[in-house]
Amino acid sequence: MSxxxxxxxxxxxxxxxxxxxxxxxxxxxxxxxxxxxAANINLxxxxxxxxxxxRAAAEVGVSADVKGPETYDPKAQREExxxxxxxxxxxxxxxxxxxxxxxxxxxxxxxxxxxxxVITIDSDAPGSKRLFFVGTDNYDVGARSAxxxxxxxxxxxxxxxxxxxxxxxxxxxxxxxxxxxxxxxAIRIIETVDIKGDPVVAFDRTKLIVAKELNxxxxxxxxxxxxxxxxxxxxxxxxxxxxVVVAMDVSERTLDWIQKGMIQxxxxxRPYTMAYVGLRMxxxxxxxPPAKLETTSSLATVPQFVDTGVSLVDRSNVDQFLKDQxxxxxxxxx
Length: 334
Description:
With 334 residues, the chain is an alpha/beta fold. The chain has helices at residues 3-30, 44-60, 74-85, 101-113, 138-152, 168-181, 199-212, 227-237, 252-259, 271-287, 318-327; strands at 33-37, 63-67, 93-96, 117-121, 133-135, 157-163, 187-194, 219-222, 244-248, 265-268, 305-307, 311-313. It folds into two domains: 31-136 and 271-309 and 319-327, Rossmann fold (3-Layer(aba) Sandwich); 138-268, 3-Layer(aba) Sandwich (Rossmann fold), CATH 3.40.50.2300. It has eleven helices and twelve strands. Helix 5 (138-152) packs across helix 6 (168-181). The longest helix is centred in the N-terminal third of the chain and has 28 residues, at 3-30.
């Protein structure tokens, strides 16, 4: 055999070995799994986050999965999280949106103690040992929503707010509302309704308001995604069109009611972006860790908060948001 043939054979064999190692490496990376844990994972909001999570996983070359109860249940969410912590094959990282910061604190700390990197998205657990929070500046979006309501009311009127008690993100939004309304003496929050994650509560309370006390309510404001479509449904059935309704997030029903004029506006968070950015940051920390994970000093190597922003959606731009929603899943399945 000539020296040329021997050299060519060696190069071909080396190439085959590198290809095999490359394929093996790809399969190995697929064993690296990142999880998103949420409450009420069937909501369109979390389906959007799922698309972002899977899009990032496909681009990075790792695996991802979504865990959590199919209806709002903070205790079940905690149980799902702890199942991941107890797995024999340790998760590469966990993104979690705590429905209850109090319930999730110890669970998050257990995961961190085992060496699992945990970040919060959408809703925070600031007292826990999570690395950082990716999501909305919730105080700011509450203040912006309140300012919008105030202008629609011409700076005077009674407001009912729908929320879910115990969620840090919603408490921050409520604080933003209260601080802004404090600058408008003629605007009052006359009731704060805890829907407990159940849209039926919002529907039934609005129905009772329409039947017995409609004249004392000028506006309905929702701090979460599921109440305002129910409010709009009740108002529409009773042909009530002189009330201000300001929602949160961009479910299909919310956008439909904006098109019909029953909801004046909503503030759209970016759950797709939260999950997409969160997974990529965790993967980066997994493969290119800093010499020291420092979160609080002036020489911090990771941020404490990544703001993914919000957008105002009203009748002027609702059609574009519907197009975006239809397109967001492209490339995001796994």
